[in-house]
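Support case: user asked for a sample of complex input and structure output to validate their parser. Sending the pair below.
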Amino acid sequence: MVKKSNGRLSSPQELEALRESIIKSRDSSQSCIVICGGTGCLALGAEGVIAGFKRELKERRLENKISLRVTGCPGFCERGPLVVIKPENILYQQVKAADVDEIVSATVKGSIIDRLLYVDPDTGKKITYESDVPFYKKQERLLLGSNSNIDPNVIEDYLALGGYAALAKTLSMKSEAVIAEVKKAGLRGRGGGGFPAAVKWETCRNAEGDTKYIICNCDEGDPGAFMDRSLMEGNPHSVLEGMVIGAYAIGGHEGYIYVRNEYPLAVKNARIAIEQAEKMGLLGENILGSGFDFSVTISRGGGAFVCGESTALMASLEGKVGEPRAKYVHTSEKGLWEQPTNLNNVETWANVPLIIKNGADWYAQIGSPGSKGTKIFSLVGRINNTGLIEVPMGVSLKDIIYGIGGGIPEGKKFKAVQTGGPSGGCIPEKLLDLPVDFDELDKAGSMMGSGGMIIMDENTCMVDIAKYFVNFLEGESCGKCLPCREGLKRMSQILTDITEGRGQEGDIELLERLSATLIDTSLCALGSTAPNPVLTTLRYFRDEYEAHIRDKRCPAGVCKELVTYSIDKEKCPGCGLCVKACPSEAITDMGKKKPVVLDQEKCIKCGACYDVCNLGAVIRK
Amino acid sequence: MTATKPSQQKITSILDSYERDKGMLVAILQDIQAEYNYLPKESLGQISEGLDIPMTQVYSVATFFKAFSLKPRGRHIINVCLGTACHVRGAGRVLDEIGRQLDIKPGESTEDFKFTMETVNCVGACALGPIVIIDGKYSGQMKTDRVKTLLESYD
């Protein structure tokens, strides 16, 4: 045992005493400027805003009166950088560095800055408080809700919200009882498969082995999904607490967090959280004086989608190529270094403290009969309110897309929603009433996956989307098994031919046969689910395939080889914007107020003219 | 530009910082790449010896993961996100435009080694799609007509 260093909590009582002193030292009526420092808002310029607030509060000597908290993602990325003034919860959106001065002044005076408020597009009314914004109002934010109350680098913020109380409770329970509680709650894995978490834990607990490993999968590879990133960036302690509880229940002492290379901020925040938890005795040896040891190491991925698959991830952790293996023997019996290993996804782990703290009965009343709790979805693509949302399982697609997402921009028509990432499928408009849970999405031919929802409008070509996913997976296939390696290559060739005007009768049937082979014979889930995007688009949008093959036409106007650009003479005022934008000098300026002329011979179909024209005078057909 | 020769000492210190743990191969390669912008050939041999693993394993891992490059890369690394959200918002056309401006394909560098253009499958900033990241700096809501100005802002 290492020497007890200062600051390590040695009992649950000490934890509670610390919590009380933290809460006592904080004045909840004091003003606090909360700004999102998640990847989305940072990309929109939040860094300058944060620096501005720091400088302004210091210069005006307000640091003791107004506190500043940089938090993880609250979800409303579309309107970032986001600033919330507490305790009132006034929401300022699209804040720029130039607004800082005014916000500080208004906060001192207790006034509100009208022009930075969110305008409800339906009513045209300005909304002052965060909770009144429709985007937030219709959510149930059990996990994400804490993000705006926590600076991820300050463990005291998490403790003030009751953090690690579930761990303290766990340590007084028998490990079987912890598993029983999670089982009763009905927690299913949030990484994609939806496998009951407690069953996995139990298998691993009962498996024979010298060491048992606990892994948190933060290799969030599904394009369009970023909930794990936001949880890890915004509330890393909730994930850690879940892992310690799981480790205690299973009897593991070593853990890994496997994070995608593309998420540098998640790596940084997780690393700081681990250091802080160790320092306080909430992680490491003799946790809270219970005699239970558990340590966590961070491992960064190398940018391979297949490493989200459990056996490939474990191979990568061993310093090998991330190739999956057949799972005749489950990883819960023989996983990392041939030892029993329990792997769960970030969101699954983050749910665990909630279950232990509030009880299985409380948890089980949320959600649908077969899928309990809430699920975080990322709402992206052609939708008004892009961002992260959290809703109880079983909510309908329509409520998500229109109620929370605010519908489709520019008055375009909804076409499909793609769920489940590259392994999922496209769901058409007629199924919008579908309740979203693990089983219902499966029935529709798609899957929950990690929770990405990509909204597509009438300008999206479904054959192109199928080709996109097949190409994606072809590139990410590890190449170990033949059906996936060769099958995806053939499917990609066929789809490329179709989108480039070389489609033939029989192509659709060939795609279906190849799909069946991949499903039946691939080694891992990457291959066996890879045909889903093709099969669902064929099931719901077969006419689009037929238009490409028979009429050599792309109804959505996306497939370059099948599209022509032309100028609408009625609408074109001859402003010349497109003339400048055209890289191939295919458009000629005919003088002021005369429509431009497009030379089809020279046009390379890059779409630059279409992008710059705000008047809709460039026609794409 | 000529590629920087790796220093044996630097690689040794990276290996030591992971206590020469075989399981940390990916992390070691990442640190070396962060240092030199690519994985110099000499470093792979030194890793193989230092960790006591076959060169084939080092090579297979270095070529398997997308994050690694065995070729020297440019001073500025352009990453065009081709995640689904960016794709449906026209990322493909942005990629084409950058390639046309610089006369390179994804994975290639310009002759003067000023830029290397790579693609990435989603960085999780989908609200800002199409997104282009140059040297870790995000530029969101990219359009083909903004590409030129963006590239010109780098020297």
